[in-house]
Request: fold
Amino acid sequence: MAETLNRRIVLAARPDGEPKASDLRLEEVRLPEIGPGQVLLKTLFLSLDPYMRGRMSAAKSYAKPVEIGAVMEGGTVSEVVASTNSAFKPGDVVLGYAGWQSHAVSDGKGLRKLDRAAAPLSAWLGVLGMPGMTAYTGLLTIGQPKPGETVVVAAATGPVGSAVGQIARIKGARAVGIAGGPEKRRALTEEFGFDAALDHRSPTFAEDLAAACPDGIDVYFENVGGPVAAAVQPLLNPFARIPVCGLIAHYNDSAPPPGPDRLPALMRDVLTKRLTYRGFIVSDFQDQAPAFARDMSAWLKDGRVKAREDVVEGLENAPEAFFGLLKGRNFGKVVVKVA
Amino acid sequence: MAETLNRRIVLAARPDGEPKASDLRLEEVRLPEIGPGQVLLKTLFLSLDPYMRGRMSAAKSYAKPVEIGAVMEGGTVSEVVASTNSAFKPGDVVLGYAGWQSHAVSDGKGLRKLDRAAAPLSAWLGVLGMPGMTAYTGLLTIGQPKPGETVVVAAATGPVGSAVGQIARIKGARAVGIAGGPEKRRALTEEFGFDAALDHRSPTFAEDLAAACPDGIDVYFENVGGPVAAAVQPLLNPFARIPVCGLIAHYNDSAPPPGPDRLPALMRDVLTKRLTYRGFIVSDFQDQAPAFARDMSAWLKDGRVKAREDVVEGLENAPEAFFGLLKGRNFGKVVVKVA
Reply:
């Protein structure tokens, strides 16, 4: 077999605040022939997700940062094009973490074979994958919505937020979604079935939110932080649960914002309203993967959960799409069609 | 029976920041004869507790504020001196909420008869009462200390903190206590058996705390907020639990403190370390009262839990003792010997 030309995007520099084009670099390298027990993968779809912003920084987090010069991390759906590993054969399609590149060599560990007929392949990066399971585990394990309660989620047309709202409704709760702009807002009620939808860009957003939550908020699925979280806080009911899943409004912060210091007031609310704030990462709930796969597949099949994708063509367009994602410019789950 | 002269302390004004003597007022009033089904109580012991600061303010909280001119609320051990209620007879000793006064008239609701022989009567206001059960329920239900883990608590010579540390040790965890001044610090290890003790007034407090917690902090029982909480935060381990029980450092705050705004950094820690902050009030766990009574009585009897009291003589000295409590001047559970 001829040598393979691999196109890859590496971390060129750690961003200071908002990431820019020069922080990432497209390279072409020749891959050697695979060795014994290895597989050569061709990337079909690359997932772009907000957590990747964290990997670009050296700040301590739950996962190690991407090294300077290393390929950006990312979930992928790939096709096996060559294999010396008995578990895989050319033509197999696998879910893995091959990163931002056209090809990858793997020893097969952590790869999961996909059934081409079960669902569109890119769905394994979205509603049937990490974002869908993030919504499922965080909402049900920490949020624990009860029938008639009010569940609020922002970034609500995104893959996590849209699943949170739809699962909340399946559990009998009222789903209130927040998104940016009239088109996304409309999609929340018309496409995803939210009970109420809000545009966080509205100058009367805080009042709009209060009006949309006349009985207060019992579960706030925290994806964003920032002004949305500030508008939510006074509406939280006693015993409200706040699964903390993401803080996209703060990922580019390079220093603590100016005062006043809102921490004591938050703690006072935690105390007097007996709130529960709990951070989580989907991998903490790996034991729920079978339950998630069973429930979400069924909900997709019977139409109770809908998923929306924002497909970007070509690896070279991944950086711009990623920067847009951090600013809320995407509309649905962002996947890059690589091959 | 002659009319009874009742001495009582009422809320004269809502404090602006730190409460002062003129915010409370000692009055004498004549009580009428008791009516049918009532009991006349003579207060033996009045409990002073930090939560009372909250009741002096009009700010929304989990309980209604004390009205201006009304008797300050408080837990009491009282003796029945007259009764037309068949459930009580003169000489009975009862636990209740008669408030800051020498006498009270009750219809018997919410009174619990005490066995004079079971424990010193004032213990029902401390280790066997609300503060002890606060420690027990918050630590075990939310903190969930595991053997070998590190549990940190401030105000640690107080009735809640000392019980938290001692229960943590009973459960096999390492107990690190924080208190103000060398005498209290010494009592933590020598009297209450903490594994390590710190003085929060030390100029090297943050470094001292880090040195005392070489394996990080798994449970931080939050009693105080303020600089202690700030020193704890960077030491919290992944999956740490923070029962939020009190914030005495902030009870006199009349406005949010100046910046920077530490809220986003806290939320980032909640997310990346998967922390759980959960507020609670002992009454949320009323169903645990029998388990608490059984366990704590046994621990007191076999000496595994020790309790320290700071007894104040005379109702007229309650205000000054309460102001001192808010500044950490007490040393142990504050009870006022009223009769």
Q: What stands out?
A: Chain A touches chain B at residues 54, 60-62, 222, 225, 229, 238, 244-247, 250, 253, 255-281, 284 (CB under 8 Å). Residues 130-143 of chain A form the longest helix (14 residues).
